[in-house]
Structures are given as structure tokens and as C-alpha cells.
Amino acid sequence: MEIAQAIDAALRKAAAVWVSVPRRRGRLVWALWRDGAVWVAVGGDQEVPGMVDGAEVVVTLRSPTTHSHLLDTPAVARLVEPDEETVAALRAAHLNGPAEWTEVYRLDLV
After folding, report:
1. Chosen CATH of 3-109 out of 2.30.110.10, 3.40.50.2020, 2.130.10.10, 3.30.365.10
2. Per-residue pLDDT of the chain (110 residues; tens, 9 = 90+)
């Protein structure tokens, strides 16, 4: 299975991935697969220390059913201003209540 297909399938079941920045511990974050990239909103209750525009990160995907490791894939974080449709999808993916974020990153797989 192609990496993009694996991410898409997993995020349809559990809208979360682990994101790690070099020399920092990975963080579990609510995420969205859209337009061939992983979208992550940070701020409020969801932080990824060290993630800045242009940062090289690693996205780790675990099985939504068994929680076993599925894959690690490198990505580049791009600070973006999401459109209204993406904002609505990010809010829907944040399952623990209201989403209060300050930044949105598009993680482009490399």
C-alpha cells in the first residue's frame, strides 16, 4: 500500500498522528489528510514544540485498531492560512471539544 493511501485510510478511522521535530519528543496531534498532505492545527491544547515553517518533521502513523506502528514518513511543515472548508474539517477532526489553535501547518510528505 502506498504511503498516502495508508495515511488516508488510518486518518479516516482515527484523526491523529504522531509528529516529531528533530531532537524533540514526538507529540500525538489531531490531524487531517487533505490534498495529499497531513494538516495539523497547533496552539491551545495541542502543541508541537519546535515546529516552524520549513521544519523537517517525521509523521508516525499507528493502527487505529491495534495501535501498532504502521509507518514513519518524513515531511516538511509549511505554515499556512487555511480556507474555510479546511478550517471546518480541522474542527471536525478535533474530537475532544472546541479547537483553539493559533497556527495551521500543512505537512508535505517528502
Report:
1. 2.30.110.10
2. 588 887 777 777 777 889 999 999 999 998 888 888 999 989 888 899 999 999 999 999 887 778 788 889 999 999 999 999 988 888 887 755 556 788 999 999 98
**SS3 state of residue 12:** helix
Distances in Å between the Cα of 5 and the Cα atoms of 10, 25, 34, 35, 98 are 9, 26, 12, 12, 28
Number of Cβ within a 10 Å radius of residue 101: 19
Residue 97 backbone dihedrals phi, psi, to 5 degrees? 120, -165
What span, in angstroms and rounded, lies between the C-alpha atoms of 26 and 8? 20
Burial status of residue 29 (CB atoms within 10 A of its CB: 0-12, 13-18, 19 or more): buried
